[in-house]
Design goal:
single chain, about 350 residues, TIM Barrel, 8-stranded parallel barrel, 13 helices, 11 strands, about 45% helix, globular
């Protein structure tokens, strides 16, 4: 069976989050992913957790480096206690230009920094839970002070699961080495990509740490083109085509293009983007490319399609909520089928 997660639109305003989360829970989703783009990811997670009873909520992903691990440790601990253990902490790095230009954070190599970040989080949680002295000293982070007044003490909830958002081989390996799970990016979530690149890198990281790769949860966060009719599926494919055209203008997402032999497309889109020639990008992503990258089909077929795509590769998948709630019963039937499907 799959765990099935609804996706939250990055442009959703905070006041809509309670109703959005409650709708996802009514529809039978296992969980809900909340982004960090226009709003603080922890605030979005708070509203979703506060207004639901069973739905798991995954930050997808909060940016680690603009925040101290201590700040994240407190926020995640509070949300975990509030929700009786339903938070999943997704962490990401972002790119150098955003760290320096948007957050005024000095850029440092992300892999060793994230390795320390996860270790520091766990050291802080261990100090609170077991009363052990806080002694974490690394190259990037140093935590040696935890007075009783600032120590929330033990909790009856487990520490949140830590997921890494990753595309490249080194971050994917780090997930296998250090994290509880990996969240894939929509640009790099085809079965071929997972099978040939993601899972081997996860296994390499796990082997380095003496872990079993089976310990890691993989959330396939790919695009899905679906709807009540073939016309609706076609319209969704066009929306995704446009979105992928924009995303693949960014070199960090070119791994799938290189895998499939489409590297020239990425270079062409990147050049057009740099020159501001956005109107010339139309049609760059062909139907054949979409067929390889995006599972597509109406509601009555999509559960089988997704099971064929991700069975045996992922433990969790994302599935879009209908734009029109009148189709919620049909989408709910798909969710039930996916949650009971043999994950082969």
């Amino acid at each position: 069976m799959f765990q099935v997660y609804a996706v939250t639109d990055a442009r959703m305003v905070l006041r809509e989050m309670p109703g959005h989360a409650q709708r996802a829970e009514r529809m039978g989703y296992s969980g809900l992913t909340v982004p960090e783009a226009l709003h603080d990811g922890f605030l979005m997670a708070l509203l979703a957790l506060e207004h639901t009873r069973e739905l798991r909520v995954a930050t997808s992903v909060v940016l680690a480096f603009p925040r101290s691990p201590m700040s994240v440790a407190y926020a995640a601990r509070d949300l975990q206690d509030l929700s009786h253990g339903r938070l999943e902490l997704g962490l990401g790095t972002q790119v150098k230009a955003n760290m320096e230009g948007r957050f005024s954070v000095k850029w440092k190599p992300p892999i060793p920094r994230m390795r320390e970040y996860i270790s520091a989080l766990r050291a802080i949680w261990d100090s609170w839970q077991n009363g052990s002295p806080l002694r974490f000293e690394g190259e990037h982070y140093r935590f040696t002070r935890m007075q009783p007044f600032f120590n929330p003490g033990p909790t009856d909830q487990p520490s949140p699961l830590i997921f890494l958002g990753g595309v490249g081989p080194r971050m994917t390996q780090l997930a296998g080495e250090m994290a509880d799970g990996l969240m894939t990016h929509p640009t790099n979530t085809s079965p071929r990509y997972l099978r040939e690149l993601t899972l081997p890198n996860v296994e390499a990281g796990a082997k380095r740490a003496g872990r079993s790769p089976a310990e890691l949860r993989l959330m396939a966060g790919g695009f899905v083109a679906t709807g009540p009719t073939p016309d609706a599926v076609g319209a969704e494919r066009e929306r995704i085509r446009e979105y992928l055209t924009f995303l693949y203008s960014t070199p960090q997402y070119w791994s799938s293009l290189e895998l499939y032999g489409w590297a020239e497309l990425g270079r062409r889109l990147h050049q057009l983007a740099r020159e501001g020639r956005w109107e010339e990008m139309g049609g760059a992503i062909t139907d054949e490319m979409l067929d390889q990258l995006v599972p597509s089909g109406p509601y009555e077929e999509i559960a089988g399609i997704l099971s064929d795509w991700y069975g045996g590769l992922a433990s969790s998948i994302t599935f879009p909520m209908p734009d029109d709630p009148k189709y919620d019963p049909q989408a709910s039937a798909v969710i039930r089928a996916l949650r009971s499907a043999a994950n082969r």
